[in-house]
Write a structure and sequence with these properties.
The complex is a heterodimer of chains A (328) and B (274). Chain A is mainly alpha-helical. Chain A is 70% helix and 0% strand. Chain B has helices at residues 51-59, 86-92, 109-115, 124-137, 139-143, 154-166, 184-201, 212-218, 236-241, 243-248; strands at residues 10-21, 25-36, 40-44, 67-76, 79-80, 94-97, 172-176, 204-209, 221-226, 229-235. The chains are: A mainly alpha (328), B alpha/beta (274).
Chain lengths: 328, 274
């Protein structure tokens, strides 16, 4: 078997794994877009904020310590305790729910029935606010996140492929774990949206705010619910990305990669987010592998956007997006 | 049958309300009306007369359009309801079918109907029973239950909108402009179903309609709005016979229908408000 082919396969598998991580971020976008028609620019920052909060709680960091020290002239940074990962994740989730409530209470409930562009601008504001707020609350240094997820090369895959191809594939355990989590998350979210009462109400709100109000659906409740769900997805994405590359502010930039993912998969489709993520992940890795050297490398930076652009021309609603219904 | 008029019990009482949009646009300038239990009450008038605003003031959908009731009161079964959120009102049995249908386009017909039962804590069995009741009144919807509502016809969407409201087990249905954009035959069909629902199931209707002719045939009592005020009210039968209503809203005058040739010289002889 030619070496190129085997390497290509390894690249393909690693692309799939990277795609899962993109998809996790894209999922949060889809949720909020589905339920409120808001394109939530702040989703990436929410992942960052969740990861920061999680590390902060685990390490027993004092929130706003710089501010407190500057005002009171004290020197406190840590409570001096460590919180177990599971408990810290629960606390962080509570913080994300609180955030969802605050976002709705102070921003979006005042913007009912406004133009989508206004809502979008509000999320941009939210993104910058949250970035600064996270910075002030937990400090801006790069932090390590270890919630005890398996990491490093998966030896059984390595050995297995070595036996077949005479070449061991390098697949990270963390990526495998992320894949399993993402699959479970998508499955439960789809079931929730399609078959539960609240999920149906969520889709109804997405279609028509006024009509949803008129049948007695409380927009505030649905929006807090959806933002909490998006917060939860952000937390999962934050854990995965944070474990992989450390919790740092560049984490919020992964949100931008979710954009082409959404254009491919469709803004309104939960499975679409996953498929779009996988296509982008595999596509950019394979492209880099085959043409990277020829084109001077770093194709991963732009490949996804070009692919999305092509999709926009030929299939604007994405692969799985809701058809744009237009009656004449 | 048609002139049954008011029954003893009044469900909804609107008392001299004034509605302002965006803090500046005065739309209703003192509207009062009462809706008796078990009746079909019609709210008539031209474009911009304030029919929809009156209904939305009752159902409390005004707030999401930056409108507010600044004067007067609205009571349902004697209790003040104007500060309630729409979902509380639905729980009390008042639901609005909005103008222009407003179906959830991406949901199937059946899912649309199920959203109507959102506020109810009922069991799946009860809801299924009601679903069947709705399908009995609208057999067409049963055939199309799995279609996306956005792809159904205008008449079917109106049926979905009414059926969705029925799923909340309401007492009073605020029906806004059910004839809008529908063929005359369909309008007739929809109104016949409304009448049937009123007679067989005892639903109370407050109906806003531009199609005065149809509305006055099916309603028991009518109010005529012009520029945000009630200018006339009475049993539907009386309104139909009233010469002014005939001329202004039904397009007839004492000399019978006016010929198109005279239209140029046609001038309103009088207005209720000037």
């Amino acid at each position: 078997m030619p070496e190129q082919f085997v390497w290509g396969m390894e690249v393909f598998l690693n692309g799939l794994m990277a795609g899962v991580l993109y998809a996790l971020v894209a999922l949060g976008f889809v949720l909020i877009y589905k339920a409120s028609g808001i394109f939530n620019y702040a989703q990436g920052v929410m992942a960052l904020f969740a990861a920061l909060t999680l590390v902060g709680i685990m390490e027993g960091q004092v929130p706003f310590s710089h501010l407190i020290n500057a005002v009171l002239g004290t020197e406190i940074h840590h409570f001096g305790w460590h919180v177990p990962a599971v408990l810290a994740i629960l606390f962080t989730m509570a913080v994300m729910v609180l955030l969802a409530w605050a976002v709705n209470q102070f921003v979006f409930r005042h913007l009912v029935n406004q133009e989508p562009i206004i809502l979008f601008m509000a999320t941009i504001g939210l993104a910058y606010f949250l970035e600064g707020f996270g910075d002030m609350m937990w400090g801006s240094d790069i932090k390590n996140l270890d919630v005890g997820l398996p990491q490093g090369i998966n030896t059984s895959i390595d050995e297995f492929t070595y036996q077949i191809f005479d070449y061991g594939f390098f697949i990270d355990n963390l990526d495998l774990f992320a894949t399993a989590i993402a699959a479970a998350l998508v499955f439960s979210l789809v079931v929730f949206a399609q078959y539960s009462k609240q999920g149906r109400a969520m889709r109804a709100v997405a279609d028509d705010h006024q009509a949803a109000l008129s049948v007695g659906i409380s927009l505030n409740f649905i929006w807090v619910m959806v933002w909490s769900l998006a917060g939860f997805v952000a937390l999962v994405a934050g854990i995965m990305w944070g474990t992989k590359s450390g919790v740092q502010f560049s984490l919020s930039l992964i949100a931008l990669k979710a954009l082409p993912v959404l254009m491919l998969g469709g803004f309104t489709s939960i499975p679409g987010a996953i498929v779009g993520g996988l296509i982008i992940g595999v596509g950019e890795k394979l492209f880099e592998f085959s043409f990277g050297q020829m084109l001077g490398g770093a194709t991963e930076n732009w490949f996804a956007y070009v692919l999305a652009l092509i999709f926009l021309v030929f299939r604007p609603q994405g692969l799985f997006g809701e058809k744009i219904i237009e009656r004449v | 049958m048609l002139d049954a008029g008011r029954t003893e019990e009044t469900l909804l009482e609107v008392n001299n309300i004034e509605v302002i949009y965006n803090h500046v646009i005065l739309v209703l300038k003192g509207v009062s009306l009462s809706v008796p239990k078990g009746g079909i009450t019609a709210l008539l008038g031209g474009n911009g007369a304030g029919k929809t605003t009156t209904l939305k003031a009752v159902s409390n959908l005004l707030k999401s359009e930056r409108g507010e009731v600044t004067k007067g009161s609205i009571t349902y079964r004697g209790a003040r309801v104007q500060d309630l959120v729409p979902s509380d009102l639905v729980k009390k049995g008042v639901i609005q079918v909005m103008e222009g249908r407003h179906c959830f386009e991406h949901l199937t017909v059946e899912e649309n109907l199920l959203t109507g039962a959102y506020t109810r804590g009922s069991s799946r069995g009860e809801i299924d029973a009601d679903l069947n009741m709705v399908y009995e009144y609208f057999p067409r919807l049963k055939e199309r239950r799995r279609s996306q509502a956005g792809y159904t016809s205008g008449g079917e969407q109106q049926m979905v909108a009414i059926g969705r409201a029925l799923m909340s087990r309401p007492e009073t249905i605020l029906l806004d402009e059910p004839s809008m954009g529908l063929a005359p035959q369909l309008v007739e069909q929809i109104f016949n179903i409304v009448k049937k629902l009123n007679e067989e199931e005892g639903y109370t209707f407050l109906l806003a309609e531009q199609n005065t002719n149809v509305a006055l045939r099916f309603a028991h009592y009518g109010y005529i709005l012009e520029s945000g005020r009630v200018v006339m009210d009475g049993p539907a039968k009386d309104l139909r016979e009233n010469p002014d209503v005939k001329e202004f809203y039904l397009g007839m005058s004492d000399e019978g229908r006016k010929s198109f040739r005279d239209v140029r010289s046609y001038r309103r002889r009088k207005r209720w408000l000037s």
